[in-house]
Every structure is written in structure tokens, then in C-alpha cells.
Amino acid sequence: MTAELVRGQNHPLSQARLEIRVSAATPVVAAATLGDENGKVHGAEGVVHPGAPTLPGLEVSRQAAAAHRLAVDLDAMPDTVHRVTVLLALPAGTPGGPVRFGAVAAPSVAVTGLDGEEIATFTLTGLEAETAVVALELYRRQGAWKVRAVGQGYAGGLAALFADQSLPEAHRLAAAVDEAVARGAARSIAAPPPRTADSDRTRQTHAPALGPDPSGSPYGTQSPQSTTGPTPGPAADPAPADPSGLTQRTAPTTGSIAGPTESTGSTAGPTSASTAGSAGTTTGGPIDYHHPRRRTTAPPPPPPAAPPAAPGQPARPVAGDATGWTMDERLYNQVWGMFEDLARTTAAFRSAVDFADSRMEKELEQVLSDPRSRIGGQADAAREAARAKHAQLVDQARQALDRDVAQLTAEAAVVEPALPPAYARWDNPVWHGYRVPMELPMALRLGDLHLSECAQLRIPMLVRLPLERGLWIDSGRTGALDGPFAGAHDTRRMAMESAVAHVARLLAVHPAGEFTVYVIDPAGSGAQALAPLVQTGVLAAPPALGAAGVAEVLAKLTQRVDLVQMAVRGGAADALPPDLDTAQHLLVVNDFPHGFDDRAVTQLRYLADEGPSVGVHLMMVADREDAAAYGPLLDPLWRSLLRLTPVPDDHLADPWVGHAWTYEPSLVPPGSQVLQQVLTQVAAARRAWRR
């Protein structure tokens, strides 16, 4: 399974012969350096670039291009080479070309086998003024090779990058690279033309950099005091940005952890039950992340004042301690602020530990480099002093982290019980007083997020409503955190149970008649998990079975999308059929691709691309490997949906520092009847609304 890396993460390489594939929205120069066991590059002869494109075990392209394939043979590398660093740079002096990476879509790199199967991918989000970047490195450790995502950018271009690697005459070497690229300019590959809403049906979304898609973090990039809620930052995922807040690590996203704005969802999309209003959102250009029901011109009232704290003690936390027009909005912004605070304080801790490690290594290296002081009491004292200083620095960083985490934990203890049903866990007592709402809430909880340094502190993962992105509930192996849930049958069952919990929550937070759910279950394998939805009658129709059922449901929803789009574009929304369901629609697809032929797959892609603009969304419960038979056809679908897992998995990233956040789904406690009680009320409200 492909490893979707974030900055600093590594992954083992099981093959010696590899390709490194680079994909960018503009021509870039690809190069690499070969370093020894300390990472030192011994002069220009250790640099492979367009002017000298071949070294033992490595070959790069002679020209600038929007796509590259670097050939790597690790077995052919000299024994002295322990690190291969892959570099990307914008070609100098390109007329009309971008002058910085921040002006174009984030490039991505993938390490693949010779058969084209991806081993690891990395999207370089968060770049701004940089014109050169260290994308990733392959390094040898204890006889085995690994790949690490780096993403370190340099505003000074290749010259600054080479200088940082202590290469002599870095400016002359960078000039030689530019000269070689200029000589091959006639053969260079032009960047693809910009896509427009007319030429590209794929939804164009801005992803905050977690990535946030993810990331693609789930909360955007404004401060918690934003009047209208978070907006996306620089680009997450494609992932989506996704963080969106969170972005998926396939493409911020964060992460790219849109928000729960874009890595996890966004506020763009239909704003009411009106079909014309729902269809008013365009499929191209930036998404408006302002909540459709929070249009204001004046600033919201200030948050409630916190009770006075004892002298020398931190202020006592208060639920709703953030700016907003309603308690829901204040709580949403407060959760967003907690998420950002935890991301930044953890980043500070990790940075401090890295500094302590590098300082100790430098001091020990100085001791060992001098033969006169390498042994004896002086050397032992120097080593002990270096280790003591390291322990002191790490301890100081840990104390600061523990202090901040303790404050956030106390805040979470106050905020969690005060959350409304849409934001609350299923075990929150607020569900026992549940009533079908009269108004759509600001956001929806899809699970919890936490970091390894403070696993006890959970931050709610909230996605803005109305939905903009659909969901992919992964029913395959999800990575190292699977633990005991490695069996395919157990994982598929849990994925379907997780999907049902998400569907139930979506139904519960929408007013009666404003959310319609269809289910495709071709083989009937999800019947047990779907029982609460079927028995309470909250579905628009029984789950569709077999190829005929798949075709019928897809045809119905495709026709709805076509009708609404034609009516809106022609200015004839009043001419829609009177029996057309104007509610938001969700299509849940289980066991894909079972029961799907080529026509059905094409319709599914159409719904994914065009549906969100007119209120039709997807929830796929599937294993990406099962869909591999369709090749690259479904890759855009996979990347356009927010990937969630039925078990804890660290595939989401935030838009600020790119942490790998562990996601845990929001599930109903075993033996609890809360799901049945909530769905029963939803069904009763739907029946009353139809009368």
C-alpha cells in the first residue's frame, strides 16, 4: 500500500531499482546530490544535474519539465554513498514563468518500483517565496535504504541550497545548472495551460497547507476570532486542503486536515433546501468558506469573560471562550483554536528536541575529530557534558509542552460536555435530549485527532456544513496503526459501521426533509451494519442490490444533477419538475467496485465532479486496492474525497506545521441504544414533514 508521507516522515524501501516521479504545474529542474554517511557532499562531482545527468546508480533529466522520472539503482551506488538528496528548482530566466513555488500548485514526488507501483508519495505544500527545494532523500541506515520526506525550501534558489550543503563555489555550480537548462530549453516541456471551469469538471478547491489534504487540518487558517469562520490557507491536499484544515497526506491537503473546512470539508456548496440556491455554487475558482447563514457586516459580540484566576495560576477555561454570534459558532472557533494551539506547541517541542539532538551530535563530533582529545578523561568529561546539556534542553522543552497540554486538557474537559449534538461524541449525554433541529448547524464532528506526544488529549475533528467534499471510508489496510484489526473481514465490517455512524449523524443534524440518503450495496454484504438505517426507515429507498440496482440509483442521481444544472444555467429554476427532491443528497457506496461496469464507474465520477455544486455528495466505503483494476481513472475520485479510516490512523496533517495527526472515528459505544433512538426521531420527523 502506498505510504503518503508528510515532512520528516520516513518509509522503508524494499526494492533497489526505483523511479522517482516528479509532477508539477510548471517546468522545474530536477537534480540530486550524493552524500556520505554524515550527509556531506564531496564537491561538484557528487551532484547530478542537467549538465551532468548521470552518476553511478542515478540519472536525471537534461531539461526542465513539468514531469520527471529519475532512475535510481541503489545497488549500483558506491559504498561511500549513504544519502541521495532529490532537489527541485524553478528554471532561472524563464519568460513569463513563475518566480516562486508559492505562485503555482504544490509539486509532488512519488517513489515507485519499475512496474510503476507507488511505494511512497509526498506533496510539497506550504512553499511560498522559495525557488528551490529539497524534496526528499533516500538514505542508508544499518544496511537498509529508506526514503524521507523533506520539503525544505530556499528563497535564494539553487545557489543557497548548494551553499547550505557546504558545496564549494555554490553560485558557480548553480549557474552551470541554469546554463545547461538554457541549452536544452528548445526541448523543454511546456506547462499545461490553466484549467477553467468549462474545460475541467473536477472541482477546483484551495487547500490550506497542513496539508492540509491532505493533507489536506480540518480547520482553515484564520484565527479563532474570525467572524465568519476559518478560511483555507495556502494549499492542502488536494488533499485536500485540506486541513482544509486537515489535509490528506496524498495531496494537500493539509493532510491536508481542509476544515474541518477543506481537508475534512468546507463551507462551500448548497446553502438551503432550495434547488436553485443549492446549485448556485460554482465548480471552479476559490471556494467561499464563509458560513452561508452567518452573513454579517458588524463584528460579533466579544466572548464571555473568564472567571478571575488565582494569583500565579493560569486562567480557568470557559466553554465558548471565542468570538462568534452564537454559542455554536463560539464553540466551533474555540475547538479550532485548541487544534492550532496543540499543533504549534507540539511543533515547538519537536523543534527544541531536534535542536538538542543536533547540538549534542555537533559537540560529540568535535570531541571525536581531535585525536588529542578523543580518549582519556577530557573526552569522557566532554561527552558527559554534551549529554547533560542535551537532557537539560529536552527536559525544558518537555516541561513547556506539559504545561501547555495541561491547560488544553483542562479546556477540553470544560468544552466537551458543552458541545451540541452535531459536535458531540456519541457517548455525550446531550444525545439523550436530542430533538430534530430546525436549522442546519455550523459544522459536524467526524471523529477525534491526537498527537503521539500527548495521546490523552483529543481534539474534535469538525467539518463545515453544508458539505463540499465527500468521504472515502477506507475498508482496506490503513497502515501501521491497524494493530489487531488486520483481518480483511473485520476491517470491512468496521468500515461499514463507521459509515453508518457518519450517515446517522448527518441525518440527525439536518432539519427534517433537508437530507436524503441512498445506499448502494450490490452484494448485500453491509446488510447487518445498515440495519439501523433500514429498520427505522430513514433511507430514501431500500439499499440497491446487484448491477441493476446500481444502474437505477446512479441514473436517478445523474438525472437530478443534469436537471438542476440545466435549470440554473438557463435561468429557469422555476421550471424544475414539482416532484424533484430539493434536499441535500448523500449516496453511500459499499463494496466498490462490485456490481459496477464501465458506465457505472463513469457516472460515479460524474457525480463526484458535478454533484457537490448541486447538493449531491458521495460516501465511498471501499478499499483502494480493490479499485486498482480501473487504473488512473479513479485516482481523481480518491483524491477529491476526504479519506477516513475505521481504526486509528495517522494519515491527516495540519495546515501550519504538517504534523501527522492520528484520526479516530466517532463510533457509537457498544450496547448503546442512542443511535436507534436518534434515528427513530429522525424518521418520525420525516413522516410528519411529508404530510
Fold topology:
Layout: E1 3-5, E2 10-12, E3 17-35, E4 47-48, E5 54-55, E6 58-59, E7 65-73, E8 83-89, E9 108-113, E10 118-123, E11 132-141, E12 144-154, H1 157-164, H2 170-183, E13 247-248, H3 275-278, H4 327-369, H5 377-418, E14 443-450, E15 459-464, E16 471-474, H6 488-509, E17 515-520, H7 527-536, H8 546-569, E18 584-592, H9 598-610, E19 616-622, H10 635-640, E20 642-644, E21 649-653, E22 660-665, H11 674-690
Structure class: alpha+beta
Which term fits the overall shape? globular
Count of DSSP E strands?
22
Helix fraction by DSSP (H/I, runs of at least 4): 25-40%
CATH class group of the domain at 471-642 and 668-690: Alpha Beta
CATH topology of the domain at 471-642 and 668-690: Rossmann fold
Main pleated-sheet profile: 12 strands, mixed
Radius of gyration: 27 Å
Give me the number of helical elements.
11
What is the correct CATH architecture of the domain at 471-642 and 668-690?
A: 3-Layer(aba) Sandwich
Low-confidence stretches: 185-244, 249-298, 480-485
- Overall pLDDT, averaged? 78
Proportion of residues in β-strands: 15-25%
**CA distance, first residue to last residue:** 50 Å
